[in-house]
């Protein structure tokens, strides 16, 4: 029983091991949002710039219907977010002759749109397709110009993010399109930004696993055990540190967004610096070979961002023990960078070399 309880707690903790909650409000400037009404008795006319955000069934001589397609730019959300809450706010439009309280219920739908549409070409005849999955009900209004400041779209927005290839905004339409029913709000084109449609989203991100191995840059990729690996956030914050295990493996759990750099530091003994290493530096200098990556870094023993005869000479001096250190120290590593959070586990394998050991002949002692 205790084990079971403990396991449940662990599952609970794992599920709730997430980045802190973030809330954003999406309300584009007037005219910069995406919404358009369509009307059945003007089946080829676009109403992309009207101030009405409308779902109705009315008459103008003959009966007609109106629906409103709309979308919010969700690209402002980081990839992989978990939506904890999404609220749509719609505000009553009293600048029009339409009425909400009318014959029969004006209860309406908000459904996800599954095919593309354009704000300035969508019409009744070419309106996109929708799905009823997790469709949201806007309940019947109690009075004219009623505001609906907290319509819960949490599940619908999560669907939207999980199915980007089939999510193109939403439609607002009456549940029963029967004459003299209407629900009317202000669109993004309405002249008062404070009552245009607004989407408020609260989200979290799962913590990231950041792991990899630290190995010597030789043919066998010899694991470097006991290497201290520091995790630096945004250039100067020491976020965490750990030691590599016998396989050279390291692992971090990261729950704070930021730009991370992995910085191994090593005090293992340096050996096998010899004339061959100096020759490799010289070959690079004269263009016979090209040193790249951590090999270039390890060859630049005086750390002046070039590899030349001065470096070759210093490597020789180290070989004959004329000097016993290089200006930047004994070890250099790749220092990979990654922006977190990332929806997937991040693997960063890191190569290291002793400064000067350009044929990677060092052996573990
Ligand atoms: Ca519009
Ligand atoms: Ca140099
Ligand atoms: Ca060597």
Which secondary structure elements does this structure contain, and how are they paired or packed?
Elements: H1 2-15, E1 22-26, E2 34-39, E3 52-60, E4 62-71, E5 82-90, E6 108-113, E7 130-138, E8 148-152, H2 154-162, E9 170-174, E10 181-186, E11 198-204, E12 208-216, E13 228-233, E14 237-243, E15 249-254, E16 258-265, H3 275-286, H4 293-299, H5 309-319, E17 331-333, E18 337-340, E19 346-347, E20 350-354
Parallel strand pairs: 12-19, 12-20
Antiparallel strand pairs: 1-11, 2-4, 3-4, 3-10, 4-9, 5-8, 5-11, 6-7, 6-9, 12-15, 13-14, 13-16, 16-18, 17-20
Helix pairs in contact: 3-5
How would you characterize the overall build of this protein?
The protein is α+β, with helices and mostly antiparallel strands. The protein folds into 2 domains: 21-204, no CATH class; 208-354, Immunoglobulin-like (Sandwich), CATH 2.60.40.10. The chain is 15% helix and 35% strand. It is built from 5 helices and 20 strands. The strands form 4 sheets. Strands 2, 3, 4, 6, 7, 9 and 10 form a 7-stranded antiparallel β-sheet that branches. Strands 12, 15, 17, 19 and 20 form a 5-stranded mixed β-sheet that branches. A 4-stranded antiparallel β-sheet has the order 1-11-5-8. Helix 3 (275-286) runs antiparallel to helix 5 (309-319). The longest helix is centred in the N-terminal third of the chain and has 14 residues, at 2-15. The protein is elongated. The two termini are 49 Å apart. Residues 1-17 have low confidence and may be disordered. One calcium ion binds at residues 35-36, 48-49, 119, 187-189.
